[in-house]
Q: What sequence folds into this?
């Protein structure tokens, strides 16, 4: 059985400033996505310039942070933040929602599309392949923080998280499962798929299907948030509930991309 290798959540101190691993993981995601976006923009027929990618990074950062934080507050722990509103700003403790961040980013797609004359899905199709990098990095940040651990298991992969509220029982290191599936695997799939011209909406649709299925799969190993528990019986979680529409909408987007006459 494995034992969680306790990490100091603070990576480095710069004078009185404490730089946390969780924040650095977000920085890794943003910088990696930015560099890959610039690389893609230089390819013939991309429809983007490197200057546009540079400009859009600021939009993405704002959408992810504000949307992710507000989404977590609304979907997962509203009573706590109503009781102590100052906790809203304690982002270094974790508490970010992918689905909230997605809504924030989608708003950025629309705003930036209006600014540049691109359609919503032209922006979404270009950006979607880079998103899993940030997702994977964020899950590594969760692992370093010792949060979002999985359900109790007798699997050889079971890990004990002493001192993190997980009790003395071995649990699935579900943060790493998500980092692998929602991060690495989804990135490889989307980057390969988008390396050739695809109909508008197809790449965004594949992201929706891919992320939704990956998240739902990982939720079977992840301990539900303690303040919510299971929403139905002993299997449905908030993560599953929020991801299921992504699969349905993503599948429809892919179908409509390849069969526009049937969906007009």
A:
């Amino acid at each position: 059985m494995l034992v969680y290798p306790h990490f100091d959540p603070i990576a480095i101190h710069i004078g009185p400033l404490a730089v946390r691993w969780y924040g650095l993981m977000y920085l890794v995601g943003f910088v990696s996505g930015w560099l890959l976006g610039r690389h893609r923009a230089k390819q013939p027929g991309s429809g983007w310039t490197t200057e546009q990618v540079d400009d859009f990074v600021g939009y993405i950062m704002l959408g992810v942070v504000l949307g992710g934080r507000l989404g977590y507050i609304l979907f997962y722990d509203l009573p706590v933040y109503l009781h102590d509103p100052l906790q809203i700003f304690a982002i270094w403790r974790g508490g970010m929602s992918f689905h909230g961040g997605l809504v924030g980013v989608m708003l950025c797609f629309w705003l930036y599309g209006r600014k540049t004359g691109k359609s919503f899905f032209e922006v979404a199709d270009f950006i979607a392949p880079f998103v899993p990098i940030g997702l994977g990095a964020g899950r590594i940040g969760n692992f370093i923080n010792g949060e979002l651990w999985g359900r109790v298991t007798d699997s050889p992969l079971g890990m004990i998280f002493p001192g993190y509220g997980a009790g003395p029982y071995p649990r699935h290191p579900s943060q790493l499962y998500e980092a692998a599936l929602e991060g690495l695997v989804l990135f490889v799939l989307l980057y390969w798929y988008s390396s050739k011209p695809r109909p508008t909406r197809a790449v965004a649709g594949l992201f929706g299907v891919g992320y939704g299925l990956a998240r739902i799969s990982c939720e079977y190993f992840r301990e539900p948030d303690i303040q919510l528990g299971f929403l139905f019986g002993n299997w449905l979680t908030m993560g599953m509930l929020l991801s299921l529409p992504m699969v349905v909408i993503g599948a429809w987007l892919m179908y409509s991309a390849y069969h526009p006459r049937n969906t007009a």
